[in-house]
Structure prediction request, 1049 residues.
Amino acid sequence: MTSPAREYTSVTRVAGPLMAVSGVGDAAYGEVVEVRLPDGERRMGQVLESRLDLAIVQVFGGTRDLDTEVTSVRFTGEPLRMAVSPEILGRVFDGTGVPADGGGAVIPEEVRDISGASINPTARDYPQDCIETGISAIDGMNTLVRGQKLPIFSGAGLPHSRLAAQIARQARVLGDSEEFAIVFGAMGITSEESRFFMGEFEETGALEHAVIFANLADDPAIERIVTPQCALAAAEYLAFSRGMHVLVILQDITAYCEALREVSAAREEVPARRGYPGYMYTDLASIFERAGRIKGKKGSITQLPIISMPDDDITHPVPDLTGYITEGQIVLSRDLHRKSVYPPIDVLPSLSRLMAGGIGKGKTRDDHGPVSDQLYAAYARGRRLESLVAVIGEEGFTPIDRLYLDFAARFEREFIGQNEKEGRTIAESLDLAWQLLSSFPDEELKRIDPTLIAAHVRRGAR
Amino acid sequence: MSGRIVRITGPVIEADGMRGGRMYEVVRAGNAALIGEIIGLSEETATIQVYEDTTGIAPGEPVERTGASLSVELGPGLLGTVYDGIQRPLEVIRDEFGDFIIRGASLPALDRERRHEFTPQAEIGGAAAPGTLIGTVPEGRFTHAVLVPPGTDGTFLRVSPPGNYTVEEEVACVRTAGGEDLIVSMLQRWPVRTARPIREKMAPSEPLITGQRVIDSFFPMTKGGAAAVPGPFGAGKTVVQHQLAKWSDADIIVYVGCGERGNELADVLRQFPALDDPRTGEPLMGRTVLIGNTSNMPVAAREASVYTGITIAEYYRDMGYDVALMADSTSRWAEALREISGRLEEMPGEHGYPAYLASRLAEFYERAGRVRVLGPTEKTGSVSVIGAVSPPGGDFSEPVTQNTLRIVKVFWALDADLAHERHFPAINWLQSYSLYLDAVRGWWEEHGGPEWDRARKDMMSVLQKESELEEIVNLVGSDVLPEEDKLALLVAGIIRESFLIQYAFDPVDTYCPPQKQYLMMRLIHDYADAGRAAVGRGASSAQVGALPVTGRLSRLGSVPTTEFPTFFGELERRMEEEFGTLGGGRP
Ligand SMILES: Nc1ncnc2c1ncn2[C@@H]1O[C@H](COP(=O)(O)OP(=O)(O)OP(=O)(O)O)[C@@H](O)[C@H]1O
Ligand SMILES: Nc1ncnc2c1ncn2[C@@H]1O[C@H](COP(=O)(O)OP(=O)(O)O)[C@@H](O)[C@H]1O
Ligand SMILES: [Mg+2]
Ligand SMILES: [Mg+2]
Prediction:
């Protein structure tokens, strides 16, 4: 974008979050505009469509009070950019990257285009450094690795924020003391949730390593459209220019998608499922694929997006498209939450696709993979039987069946369930797993090599 | 040859002054000369899909026509290379431009400097019909055949002597019947949306052996066949595709990562150079062409990527090779079609997909096949296509899955419930099918053994029985079942745990050669037979289950391949002994 700034007062139409400015011959696609309202207020916008005589602009601050007479629009000739420097650590910005903590503008070391560029796939370094979160359901069965994008699928009222905060608090990489940072992108969350995170960061001293972008529930919805991009531009700077390991928490992706839907509806686009635009997969991918590692660079970006599933429906387009892009998912369950299990992680639909590369001999333990597989198989069987108890009664079960029933109950309570302040080492989680599995006769442990069973069951638990 | 941009909406732009432009003609759009393709024409105005990010492009900027259709470069040097959806060499781009992809980076797909050792095979004065061998070039362990390209016909006026040539240098000159002299080099271009011509399609007759038991033994694929693997996220589509790319017995693999994850390509790039082809001992990368247009790369190039891939596959097929193409995921390609169609404001069909979705899918899969290739000597080659499908919400009734199933002959249905209990590959044995069973039975009876069909059918019917019994068990428990039904449940459990489950990450079991598959089937089938006989003699299923051999049947896959025949012999002997003790001794 090379054109200089131009100013127009020819707003001809305002509809929803969009306005049309006529007589603009050369608005660049994606160009930033500054809108000046009759009362002098300024808002930011971006060109969504450009024609020879007309530009369609989405206005981040919303279109309230815009008029077609006095409102003036300055086309800046620039894409959306953000100033970054090491000073951003400890700062709070609004959803569009403007300082919101009264601390003044950032003196730029770099100015970054917030939309970033795609990492060349051949430049990617396959993530395989295991992160210990101290949470058994994650470390034992859905191991997180550095550079992974692993969302939390949750529902209204479930403790996803507490879980994310616990992960942020406890996460560490074995034998490593490199610099880390947290980037928190809030989209449409309540001020209470936001306060929770701020309090949490303050209490643990994480605030000075954190960069916060906050678009809260009562902030303009359209602003959210750029919040993840701002957060990730900051993360990319910290990771790839400053060599830090960055954990990015994005909450709530569903609110972000609703803003996308609003813009799409205003443009009268043909929707895909449930009114969401057909390009939502591509759009979400442009956020999530910014996680990762790059060969020859020290830093990394690990993403922990939080997705609230409307009506707890995992097939809803937002969690569905997310699951197709991210490297697994941690799924929270209302049932477990009701049973007072914290964290209420339903391991069966949960998955870490990068687990296989991050665990095993030389990384965690040689029994890690097989134990995890066995826990899955045994718990799946226990849960299936549980659903039959009401129909056929306990008497209909064989003695082996009963072992599975007992196992499932203990597994939920003792393995999944843990204290919010409790961090278990990976070895502790695996030993706990062996303890639970040792209630089965060896022949039932079909997913584990007999030599491993001999080594662990006999040595440890029995 | 130049027009002017009048409208930009995301990856789609409109330009006027484009009279004379052709559908699918490549253009360079804007001051940044972004690569695009004409996808709609109306008098002066062309609609163009742009293969790069259009941010910053403004109306009034120029559009240059190139006169050419979107084409790929074909020639020695494709193998082992990683391209994006429009065949830009990603490794070279990285060396040149850095870790992030910048726009307007345009580099030739094939190295122009590199010299290839050419050995002529054609005679001056000889006939030069399409497909005639001009000479050969070693490409890794392959012999790369330099053929007269389709459309060039005449006699050889010149054939270059043995030597090292770049891909652009002349290797032959063909004088056509019309007296025109056509220079032929090793570099050919072919428009990606046009299938390369063949003499004739033939029925597939040989299995594509993948080393995955549930596929090879239960739902086999053929060389030249078309298969689809639909499944919800996390069910194992990509792992299946990776396993096939690693272990299937095609000569050449074209892997298209279409709108999926960057780390999955990084995974291939990390593993393939280090893994050896079980048949040749050579690194797998040497037989692989990777097309990677990940989800965050431009959506129009994603649409093109499957065509780029299949054209490269056809090119090697034309030399007589068996090529297998994996496309992960065809749904992302369909969504790219939908996205572009939406921007064109076309009338949407089901789920917003354009009305031509079905015909595009059919055209693509039709490019699979076992064929007699062009040329004077009788040669066959094949392109097998395996497409992953990612149905929204895992619901197979959606348009992409349904339209794909109308075309392909093999359906591997991935099942979320199986994946959740870590039964991998999570291919549902009741839902999946292969229409190639008759085509491959002969091969298996020859290369596996005579009992193949019987053992296979027996195992399938036990699994079928299990699902019927499950309904009863879920109501009243298993205690009330007659002994033979309890035995069926026992055997079904063994089939699932020991045969169907096959972990991709197990160093031994990741690849199970056909002979081992056959012996495993035999063991389970013989066990089932002996069990039924014992129950017939009055033994209980619990007694059968308590036999030491029952335990020996678990983890069969991890027994090393070389030790398996001995293991098999020993276990068969044990079975005979142990079953002999049940139900009042031998009959
Ligand atoms: N001249 C204009 N002035 C103001 N707004 C406009 C103008 N043209 C288009 N728009 C806005 O842009 C949106 C998209 O325009 P669109 O491309 O659908 O217009 P069109 O092709 O002229 O009309 P149709 O809806 O019949 O296809 C419209 O919904 C409208 O809000
Ligand atoms: N054959 C297999 N063996 C072991 N694990 C598998 C197998 N297939 C799938 N998985 C597991 O399931 C995960 C998801 O598989 P993937 O192929 O990425 O799913 P999809 O492409 O359908 O979303 C993998 O990361 C792996 O952990
Ligand atoms: Mg996949
Ligand atoms: Mg219109």
